[in-house]
Amino acid sequence: MLLRNRHGFTLIEIMTVLAIIAILMTAAIPSYIGYKPTLVLNRAVNEYHGILQQARLMAIKNRGDCTVVFGAKSYTVSCTTSNYTRTVDYSDYGELVIFERFDGTSGIPTANLTFNSRGSCNSAYMHITNTQRKDFYRIGPLISGAIKKDRYMGGGKWEAL
Asked: Which long-range contacts link 99-107 to residues 24+ away (Cβ below 8 Å)?
């Protein structure tokens, strides 16, 4: 007797699909694990770049100073003319992101940044790398207030991003 209106999947079809998914996952997981330090590094670089841009714009908009204060474990952005305060803990990025220069010295600025009502600022760069120490970035405002993001190319050369 033949069933004409067969619905659903057979056990063999389900097992075949699960086997294909397992094979794809065994290839994808090691690639993701190897790429994760780069992903977290890019997140840290882009987040810090965005925070500096936001601090500059808030200083201009509110016609007052907006300061970025660097500590040993975090940095805090606060604006005097608004009630805005944001603290970013360096450990939020886990052990995959390191705040240091390519020569191994600390990458955390020693001077605080202060954006004024015209958007200009003193200059201090944050240097960020990952545990693989293959990619090095520096992010910071120019004296004009423009936020600059560079990647280290080796041999003392930096590439603007």
From this structure: 99/126, 99/127, 99/128, 100/127, 100/129, 101/127, 101/136, 102/127, 102/129, 102/133, 102/136, 102/152, 107/138
**Check whether domain 11-160 has CATH 3.55.40.10, yes or no:** yes
Please report, for the chain, the start and end positions of each structural domain, with discontinuous segments joined by +: 11-160
- The total of other beta-carbon atoms located within 10 Å of residue 155's CB is 5
The pTM assigned to this predicted structure is: 0.79
**Beta carbons within 10 angstroms of residue 139's beta carbon:** 23
Q: What is the pLDDT of residues 15-51, one digit of tens each?
A: 999 999 999 988 888 877 778 888 899 999 999 999 9
Note the pLDDT tens digit of each residue in 69-104: 998 899 999 988 888 889 999 888 888 899 998 888
- Report how far residue 142's alpha carbon sits from residue 151's, in angstroms, rounded to the nearest whole number: 16
The most distant pair of C-alpha atoms in the chain lies apart, rounded to whole Å, by 85
